[in-house]
Structure formats: C-alpha cells, structure tokens
Give the backbone structure.
Amino acid sequence: MKRMTKIIALVMCVVLAIGSLTGCGGKSEEEILMFAVTGVNNAESCEIEASMTGKMSMKMGKESQDLDMKMDLKGAMFNDPFKMKITGSVSSMGQSALMESYIQKENEKYVLYTKTEGNWTKMELGDLNTALASSGMNSFSNQLSADIGKYTKREEKKEGETTYLVYDYTISGEEMKSMLEGNASSVKSMLADAVDTKEYEELMSKVASSIDKVTLTVYVDVKKQEISRVEYPMTDMMNKMFDEVMKYVKDKALEEAAGEEAKQSVKEMMDSMEMKVSDMNMSISYKNVNKAEDFKVPDEALKAKSMNAALSSLE
C-alpha cells in the first residue's frame, strides 16, 4: 500500500513537472496581446488595408439629401526613414475617385506625391509629424498602448481557421483631443497661410473638445501573435464633430450679418441646416508586419511640379 502511494505520488510529480514545462513554454493571453501590440508599434515595415463605410444625410430648408460613402485603401509603410504608399478609391453619390499617393524623404524634407484625375502633384511637407498627418497615419501610429489595463477581454472569435483574441480598447476624451489637435496643427502648417490660422485653431479646438472617449475593438491573431485588425465605430464621434462645426459656422454667420433683419434671416437659414451620420465605421487591417513589399515612387510623379509655390502666392 505504501509502495502504491509512493508510485502515485511520483506519477503526480511527473505530471506536474510536465504541466509546468508546458506553461513556461507558452504565453498567456495577456502576454500574447502585449507582444502583438509591441510588435505593430515597433514594426520596421507593414502593410495596411483600410475600409470605411458611412451613411449620412444633409438638410437645408425643405431640401434634403442622403449620402452613402465607401472608402477602400491599401498601403505600405516603412520606418527609418519613413516612407509610405497609399492606393485606393473613395465612392459617394454614385461617383468614384481613384487615389494614389506617396511620401518619402528628399533632401532632409518629406515630400508628398498625389495623383488626382490622372495628374501628379508634389508638395513639400517638412518634418515627419506633418508627413504623418498628411498620410493619416499619425492617428494609428503607436495608438495602442502597452498598458494592459486599457483592454477589456471579449469572447474569442473564430473566422475560418483563424482564432482571434478580441478586446475592447478605450481611448479617453483627453487622448482623442490631443490626437485631433495634433492633426490640426500639422495640417495647418502644411496649408501655410491658405487658411486663417486663428479661425482654424478655434474651430479645431471646439471640435476636439466635443469628443468623448472612443472604444475600439482589437483583434489579435493567436497563432501569429499579431494584431490582425482594429475596428473603429465613428457614428457618435462624427455627429458630435458635425454639431460643433455647424454651431461654429452659425455663430460666425450671425457675427457677419448686418442688422436685425439680416441676422434673423441668417438664423432661420442656419437653423434649417443639419448634417447627421446614421452609420459610419472603419476597419484597419495589418499585414506582413516587418515583411512589407518595397516600392518606388513612379518616375512621372517625381517629375510633377511643386504646389508649394502656388500656395505661397495665396498669402
């Protein structure tokens, strides 16, 4: 009996030892998540696919129009030095426009090349922050924090043969404000004096302050231990932004109206205007992390005339 007890105890020790080895060899869900976040944040290169769909309505007086919008983009991004390629299409009101753009560093400055309706344009952007703002990637670069407390685990999801860990990730209102104000500052500097600096900053400050926290959904590929995609619900955020824009436009129109009769007319017109989003969502997928296919700016783009001189003439 004692011998049997010793044998059982020995077997149990072996089982526990094997179990311990198995545990040390794998990663917990939290470790997989943090590994994936760090991987995409520190990637030397990656490819992205972005998709956005939206439904909105515009109203002015008795006239109203419903708009459907769809955007599909593909891109490749490299760091050190930063360069990026984006191609895709934007569709709205039955019309579709193709787009193609590149950013790369030339003579210590970042340059944006854009193809519109078959014609290439060139614009010097300056520093890296402005280049990121023009590409839209500053909103996604290092957006996901390595703070595990920001993530809320949801039910795992299986799509085909792939299993995903799914998390809600919350960006606070202050973080959203900082991101939007950073974008505004970079875009303003890119446009130089083509816009009124004071009015632009005032409007963007109001828009940024209207945004509350935003909750994204993060999908982590368990097998690859990589961020697969991030989904962005945008309906509520866009409605708040549109509301602030309309308030701002109304206040400015009333300020410029001369006389009570004119002010009343402007007020009635502005009160009849409305922009509402009924459904808008965006999804960003990450592919070939650290293995993105390299690219070169087309020769015809490199020959394009610079737009900087044209913008300077608007001063």
In short: Residues 1-25, 185-194, 310-315 have pLDDT under 50 and may be disordered.
